[in-house]
Amino acid sequence: MALFLPPLAGQVSEVPGWWPEAVLWLGLALLVAATVAAVGAWTLVARLQALAVEAKGLGTLKEIERAIQGLLAAREELDLRRVEHLLIDLRDATRRVEQALLRAQELRPVERDALVPYAAQGPAQNLAERVVNRLLALGFERIEIVTPVEELERLTDADGHVLVESRREGMLHKGKVAIRSGRIESVHLAPAFPIFP
Fold first, then answer.
1. Of the candidates 171, 195, 168, 197, which has an alpha carbon nearest to the alpha carbon of residue 187?
2. What does R_g of the chain's alpha carbons equal in angstroms?
3. Which are the contacts of 177, defined by CB distance < 8 A and separation ≥ 6?
4. How many other C-beta atoms can be found within 10 angstroms of the C-beta atom of residue 106?
5. CA 30 to chain centre
6. Cβ burial, residue 130 (10 Å; 0-12/13-18/19+)
7. Is-contact 161 178, C-beta < 8 A?
8. Residue 166 C-alpha from the chain's centroid
């Protein structure tokens, strides 16, 4: 090392006169740059901390949004249930009204008790018409009365059964309509062919 010092000492004397002043200004510029960088880094860290606090607030908003979505879904489901129950009640009420109208139609006085005479139809045709109307109201179609007309005439004042064939949803149904004193008491129809699982 000692070998290198003497030549360096000689070179130091050859440094221009402005060099120390330039090094001073360069050092001051580096100091200012380092200070500005430190202040910038500190500002950046402070800003990141502020953003982290805001991000925590946004996390809370997501939880609130999830809770609100859950409440809205429950409310929507509740509204759908209410509508469903109302529709079921309306369906049941419609059935009860239909049954009451059919009963009232069937309980109308027979020709001998009526104040105004019926049309020129015979009693057997009136009974057949009431049977067909009842089956139509129950959802059957293409209704055929199998019982002969003479038997229908007898049933206008007696008890018995009217044999019928009809279709519901395309499937053939056979059965009987129970008649009591000329009025329809019940309907018993079943598919003509049993359905196997």
1. 168
2. 51
3. 131, 134, 135, 161, 162, 164, 184, 186, 187, 188
4. 17
5. 70
6. buried
7. yes
8. 36
Mean pLDDT, the chain, rounded, equals: 79
Query: What value does the mean pLDDT take over residues 69-77?
Result: 78
Q: What is the rounded CA–CA span in Å between residue 60 and residue 67?
A: 11
At 141-188, the pLDDT tens digits run 888 888 888 888 888 778 888 899 998 888 888 899 988 877 888 888
SS3 labels along the chain: CCCCHHHHHHHHCCCCCCHHHHHHHHHHHHHHHHHHHHHHHHHHHHHHHHHHHHHHHHHHHHHHHHHHHHHHHHHHHHHHHHHHHHHHHHHHHHHHHHHHHHHHHHCCCCCCCCCCCCCCCCHHHHHHHHHHHHHHHCCCEEEEECCCHHHHHHHCCCCEEEEEEEEECCEEEEEEEEEECCEEEEEEEEECCCCCC
Which residue, chain included where needed, has tokens 């019982």? 147
User: What is the Cα–Cα distance from 9 to 1, expressed in whole angstroms?
Assistant: 13
- Paired tokens of 2: 């000692």
> What length is written for the chain?
197
pTM: 0.41
